[in-house]
Design a protein that fits this description.
The protein is mostly helical and about 170 residues long. Helix 4 packs across helix 7 and helix 6 packs antiparallel against helix 7. The two termini are about 30 Å apart.
């Protein structure tokens, strides 16, 4: 019904935005915004990347299972983001000067190929886990609000995201 129509409209809007963004931007513009983001926009982008199905599903489960003591998880994240923010200011200046594209570029420049490889593997493991979590969470939410089977919701969600990325 109405909910499915909104979901389909949302997917269409995402695809149109991906197409339009892909037409206007170079590779550097699409992936790192031509290095023109300010501190607030960069912080908002990192936060938006972090908040998602993990936050909605996993942390809700933590609170359900462990009660108020799960709050310490959020304290840990706040401290971690604060420390990263201090490092991030230094990293952004250096990345703009040295033209880094990834965190591994920084580690290779400062510490060599071995540490860059370790950083790449660590980032891959963390982001792969988060990505799988977001696909599962997104598909579960999509199945719940649309009435679609979980596998159907997963395939549709993954397809829209992949098409969006390829168009971008």
């Amino acid at each position: 019904g109405v909910v499915v129509s909104f979901v389909i409209l949302f997917f269409i809007i995402c695809l149109v935005l991906g197409y339009l963004a892909g037409k206007k931007k170079s590779g550097e513009g699409y992936f790192i915004a031509d290095r023109n983001l300010g501190t607030f926009t960069t912080t908002a982008t990192i936060t938006a990347s972090f908040v998602g199905a993990n936050t909605l599903l996993v942390y809700t489960a933590f609170v359900f299972m462990f009660g108020i003591s799960a709050f310490w998880t959020f304290i840990g994240y706040m401290v971690g983001f604060y420390i990263f923010g201090i490092f991030g200011v230094h990293l952004k200046k250096r990345a703009d000067t040295k033209k880094y594209y990834t965190l591994s570029d920084y580690f290779q420049d400062k510490h060599g190929k071995y540490l860059a490889l370790m950083a790449t593997l660590a980032v891959f493991v963390v982001y792969f886990g988060a990505l799988v979590n977001k696909y599962i969470g997104g598909a579960k939410i999509m199945a719940e609000i649309s009435g679609w089977e979980y596998v159907t919701a997963l395939i549709i969600t993954a397809s829209v995201i992949l098409v969006y990325l390829f168009m971008g």
